Amino acid sequence: MRRQLHATPFLSLAVFLLLLMHGAGGCLAAAHRRALDEGMWGGVRPSATAVLRELPRKGQGATQAYTVAEAEEGKRDWVPIRIAVSTEDLTDPSKHCTKEKEKKPDFKGQESECTKTDILTPEMTKTLVGEILPVAVKLHAERLLVQRAKSPLVVPSFEAGHEVCQYFTVPEAHHKAGVKDADMVLYVASR
Q1: Which whole-number Å values give the CA distances from 186 to 5, 21, 88, 140, in the listed order?
Q2: In this predicted model, what pLDDT tens digit does every residue of 122-132 receive, in sequence order?
Q3: Closest CA to 165 of 59, 24, 5
Q4: DSSP labels for 35-84?
Q5: Is 146 helix (H, G, I), strand (E, B) or coil?
Q6: Residues 85, 188 contacting (CB under 8 angstroms)
Q7: 7-38+77-187 architecture in CATH?
Q8: Which of 11, 13, 177 lies closest to 90, judged by CA?
């Protein structure tokens, strides 16, 4: 008997991922080594020249759907961000729900009981990795500009002070050799 997929779990997962990408800025490893340490910037961020086509809104004309940002002199080498995605926690059954009522980590340092809607099925993983994440990465890569580092991106250790970040699996190679051809790494997990 074939089980039909319902859109509700996928929608919840998609919304969770978009919120995660939007709100977990401190968990994302950025190419500029000082990006995780706001204090080192002294409150000043470099600006970029970019024309950004915003998502259309109902009742808005095309002339209102563009945003222009002006770069400082000498800072015109900004390019689209390269986002690497690590799905290690999706392949480790000890990190996500596989059946109801089992206890799994909750990204708050606790374990909580899994419900039916928390279960990550192979179909959901396939949809997430094969469809949702590529679209989300493309959407952000088209809109975010960075000044690329010349060396691989070395991800710092996420310790107790990083709250949620410390609970993601970061491959040791990301800490030592770094991630080639990436300006940011998104670590994906499921509850």
Answers
A1: 26, 8, 11, 12
A2: 999 999 999 99
A3: 24
A4: TT-HHHHTT------EEEEPPP-TT--GGGSEEEEPPPTT----EE--EE
A5: strand
A6: yes
A7: Roll (3.10)
A8: 13
DSSP state of 171: -
- Kindly report the pTM of this predicted structure: 0.61
Residue 54 amino acid letter: E
Q: What is the pLDDT of residues 121-170, one digit of tens each?
A: 999 999 999 999 999 999 999 899 999 888 999 998 877 666 778 888 89
User: In this structure, which amino acid lies at residue 83?
Assistant: I
| Residue 179: both structure tokens together | 């991630």
Q: What is the distance of C-alpha 176 from the center of its chain?
A: 21
Q: Where are the alpha helices (DSSP H) in 87-121?
A: 88-91
The neighbouring-strand residues paired with 80 are 145
The SS3 of residue 185 is: strand
CB-count burial class (<10 Å; 0-12, 13-18, 19+) for 147: middle
DSSP-derived secondary structure for 15-48? HHHHHHHHH-GGGSEESSTTTT-HHHHTT-----
The residue among 11 and 41 whose pLDDT is bigger is 11
Short-list 3, 179, 181, CA closest to 88: 179
One-letter identity of residue 22: H
